[in-house]
Amino acid sequence: MEKPTRDRTRKAAHGRAAPAKPLRARSGSRRTAPARKEAPAVPGGAAAADDTVITALELEAAPLSPAMAAYFEKCREKLGFVPNVLKAYAFDMPKLEAFVAMYNDLMLAPSGLSKLEREMIAVAVSSHNRCYYCLVAHGAAVRQLSGDPVLGELMAMNYRAAKLTRRQRAMLDFAVKLTAEPWQVEEADRERLRKAKCSDRDIWDIAAVAGFFNMTNRVASATDMRPNRVYHGQARTPATERS
Amino acid sequence: MEKPTRDRTRKAAHGRAAPAKPLRARSGSRRTAPARKEAPAVPGGAAAADDTVITALELEAAPLSPAMAAYFEKCREKLGFVPNVLKAYAFDMPKLEAFVAMYNDLMLAPSGLSKLEREMIAVAVSSHNRCYYCLVAHGAAVRQLSGDPVLGELMAMNYRAAKLTRRQRAMLDFAVKLTAEPWQVEEADRERLRKAKCSDRDIWDIAAVAGFFNMTNRVASATDMRPNRVYHGQARTPATERS
Amino acid sequence: MEKPTRDRTRKAAHGRAAPAKPLRARSGSRRTAPARKEAPAVPGGAAAADDTVITALELEAAPLSPAMAAYFEKCREKLGFVPNVLKAYAFDMPKLEAFVAMYNDLMLAPSGLSKLEREMIAVAVSSHNRCYYCLVAHGAAVRQLSGDPVLGELMAMNYRAAKLTRRQRAMLDFAVKLTAEPWQVEEADRERLRKAKCSDRDIWDIAAVAGFFNMTNRVASATDMRPNRVYHGQARTPATERS
Amino acid sequence: MEKPTRDRTRKAAHGRAAPAKPLRARSGSRRTAPARKEAPAVPGGAAAADDTVITALELEAAPLSPAMAAYFEKCREKLGFVPNVLKAYAFDMPKLEAFVAMYNDLMLAPSGLSKLEREMIAVAVSSHNRCYYCLVAHGAAVRQLSGDPVLGELMAMNYRAAKLTRRQRAMLDFAVKLTAEPWQVEEADRERLRKAKCSDRDIWDIAAVAGFFNMTNRVASATDMRPNRVYHGQARTPATERS
Amino acid sequence: MEKPTRDRTRKAAHGRAAPAKPLRARSGSRRTAPARKEAPAVPGGAAAADDTVITALELEAAPLSPAMAAYFEKCREKLGFVPNVLKAYAFDMPKLEAFVAMYNDLMLAPSGLSKLEREMIAVAVSSHNRCYYCLVAHGAAVRQLSGDPVLGELMAMNYRAAKLTRRQRAMLDFAVKLTAEPWQVEEADRERLRKAKCSDRDIWDIAAVAGFFNMTNRVASATDMRPNRVYHGQARTPATERS
Amino acid sequence: MEKPTRDRTRKAAHGRAAPAKPLRARSGSRRTAPARKEAPAVPGGAAAADDTVITALELEAAPLSPAMAAYFEKCREKLGFVPNVLKAYAFDMPKLEAFVAMYNDLMLAPSGLSKLEREMIAVAVSSHNRCYYCLVAHGAAVRQLSGDPVLGELMAMNYRAAKLTRRQRAMLDFAVKLTAEPWQVEEADRERLRKAKCSDRDIWDIAAVAGFFNMTNRVASATDMRPNRVYHGQARTPATERS
């Protein structure tokens, strides 16, 4: 079973020098997580070593409940790996199950917003919050769902530079205003969405997705959560050019 | 069964004049919600009329699932009313159930943070985001759990003015920085919590509660969610003076 | 005669632990202020002990001038207590008298703005500046003048969530913009007020009240000024429900 | 007697084109103020025409009270002109008298801060708030009191670029933080002043001056108050080079 | 010769719907630029159609000066294409030549900063400014120079999440502070660089590169400059995995 | 030949006390620059001593190239002095030459913007960035080119308070928005300029000048660059009053 561990050697990954302050000593029993099982399914090579370090917190993985064991297995089958955010929550089954239930309902259940549109909101919100984990993981999702590698970059860098439908632009404007200054959101903002052909239920869904990523961006930033390296190379070729 | 409806007459509640623009006509089938059942349990009088208007969105209440019907009943027994946020989510049972599961785990499950401390984080985050719903509902919770009506005001107005333990202050500083500029949260911030006697698990819990209210603040602001009026008068007398 | 003193024991009022750093020693002549005289007039009990600590500065109270002695006496008669801000200024009679003269002119003299509207501006400005003293003291004034305990909370939490007349909303928008980014206030902002039926004299009064609380918010924050505890419980019951 | 009037021709003073929108018609009784009396005392020529337009508000000047008439006369004798801010307040004697009393106490009464230091705080605060009136009028005061025309520019442009004593720097840092984010001012900030040799009374005075200019900056911005043109040329030569 | 043109059909590239307002008619003489010459050298296919639309401004390309013609030819040889920023400046030879001279000196001339470090500064600054053009073009440069596709993403998303040497971190902190609030940069900031082993000349170079991208970010944003599509796919595979 | 040096005695120029921390020792070879040659041409006296200290960085002046020697000579003839920014860049001829080429093209070459308008943009941008060097040097340029000493102050203090043509106001609004939040600049902003009679080439020029000062403001702030003292007294008398 996966165990989120924390190999402090990661700290020097991109640097020439050691960190300025020695990290406080901890018990030596941590080993790098056996990420091997996921690796074979990842096109392009083994999971990188630092996929075994998921957060800056030392939290013992709990035994997976049967439902979560099945869910992790399904991730491995469909994605080739278990997203690190799930491993990060796996120290406590009720927390993991609540997160998975809310995530799957928001991002996958029927909605007036397409799955791509929900991922676009996720990335535009995460860009405002400069959340490394969510930008990497959901940027890849935008590239995959759209078949357009440029669209993923636009959402991550500045959604205002993208050429979008009026409805999509209104969605993202609402989601980002709600992220930046929620206290300023008023009836006029909702009316703007309604004029762009959003139903009241669509407004709820935009708010709920934007709200959810305002939560996960903060959990990820607070814990220095690291995305699986495999995301970086995913869907970098336009769908039209893939063979 | 309660049905969240939207009585546009609310718009003139605190005003002398009519709203500037007429609201667009909608189907006439809306009725004011029969809030009578809650009323008797509320000390001081019937639930105010505008407790029947919960959000600015028109969403039909769905039939409550058995689990949620039982949960609403439990709210009525213990609180004397069903918090409006639950009614707002009640247009869709999977959403309501996911929300309730996550909320109860975060705020009520065992944790290194007391229930009061979790509510203090909720209010300090909501104060940064100037979220009317959450300030009213969770401000009341701080007053009740602490028996100190002044502490609730301090959390809602400026937590920096409160006299807190060093550990509580560190928690709130972390939660509010995570709210205001999550991209700036780094190892030094986590170390500050560890030095204030927070375990890594406590850090997760602080982040998770702060993250959760960053979500709900935005859902509430996006939908103009209204708190039950009964909160306003709750626990305004110091516990030491209550007979 | 009251003497503003500074009982450092206040520091531990809401905390479990002692402050991190010992406060530097000071001369021992400070005594807790004899707040007894106010107490009887306060409904609900004696003035709390920490009403005797008014600011974080050690300033010796000066003898009250005859005019100020009469004014303090009038406060006790009408309010049941002397507002702490007056005691804070009482180390210097010219400063106290100038403050009282300006305050009374602005908040009580004839104006196109009602007294309630002036208090609403005071609270909305203080909310932007997150000033604990002014939110507590003037939040109570809004509750009392309006007979509406909810309106006080709305002004303190987020005035944009309140249902107001167009004129009142325009006043508060102007006052808060003037608070947040005074350099952006221009003719278009004044025209918006004029269109909402404000005269040029009303514009002056809105600006003067907003400006005044931008001053007092800062004096209060700079000195950690503490409001009288009695404010917290005032006017928490709707006027319509009072017997 | 001076009468603050409002000559709309000012609007085109620095422009080639007429304003975009015609200004609404008003009663024809406005006359340009007879600024002649001040003129002779102004070195370098007559008061510029637009000194007769003081604010964007139409407020009838009230008859000066005897005290205020004497004060205006004293201004003319000592300065050669009446500062426009006084004329702006002159529509109402109680307001003018309260303003003058507070201003004179703060800026001229005995204090641990020199008059120059109080003016430096005034300008640094006004620079943060980008208040044209106060930067012009008090920038001139810094140049005059210091005999150093460069110091005035430094305060108006970026006080951080000035070479100051540690105590002066601490004063301005406190005053500007109090201006920018008063909710963040805490005991540590006061301690920093105490370590820079400020007494508690000095802290009050710094706060009171900073607070006062946070008020007047806003009244000036709200009313588009215009400084007397004579300020611009004052004290532009270093004191050491004057003959 | 290349001519920067502006094919308005781009506007619908990522959208389902037409833009809300029709664009004003313009002279019909624009032709799509003959991008064919670059195309063969681009791995993975012809230059995308929208590489022919470079900015939102209609500026006629000027004849290339001999020096610039040679420089463009060199770009085609070495990169396989002419970066769009050069085409954007090509309406005026003195502007193009000044830009090229400054750019090449800053990014390629000898310096205590490696070329990679200068590109890292470029991307971190562009991330603060959310500049789509510079993030795409210089993000690719970071990936290529480092052989590390993840490092490019980290710089574009949140440099604080990267594991860097203390010196590199100090460089980026200085560059981003200088970008966000240049008025706050003082001797203490320079001392921090010196302590991280930066010479005074290094400080100049950090400031000059950060300054330059603060310029180009704004020219790109002001003109809606579009990066060559070929950048998106460049160097997405770690150098260690390339055959 | 001028040599930018760094006389640390400057540090006490405006202060009573010595700097808090001793500056680290450096090699003793620095001499004060022989500023005498410029001095005679400066009306009002010799160049002040602290014109010899130009930045906080120790960079050895390089021998001037023939082109730059001629350019410096031309500055002395026409201005009476060499602007300090040029001396600051003179440690490296390619950097100096690239800076001079770009500066002269932007500010002096033919354009739809007058030289005064370009200087107004320079000062409004520098005011947003609170750049002491650029405000002093280009504020003087606005005064000289306009013959209006007040206009220079308005640009430096708050351009919104100036009475400008609609076209000039649109230019400055665009330049300052591009400075403050370049990521928000979109087609609607360009359309606003076009409606105010700006051609697409004018838009480029506004963006290029605004961009350039966003660069130089940061180089100046990063290095604590000091303007020549002679600027302060220049053009303080209205052109109409000069004999």
What do these coordinates show?
The structure is a homohexamer of 243-residue chains. Chain A has 243 residues and is an all-alpha fold. Chain A has nine helices and no strands. The first copy, chain A, has helices at residues 66-79, 84-89, 93-108, 115-128, 132-146, 149-157, 166-180, 187-195, 200-223. In chain A, helix 4 (115-128) runs parallel beside helix 7 (166-180) and helix 7 crosses helix 9 (200-223). Chains A and B meet through helix 3, helix 7 and helix 9 of A and helix 3, helix 7 and helix 9 of B.
Brief synopsis:
Chain A is an all-alpha fold. The first copy, chain A, is built from 9 helices and no strands. At the E-F interface, helix 3, helix 7 and helix 9 of E face helix 3, helix 7 and helix 9 of F.
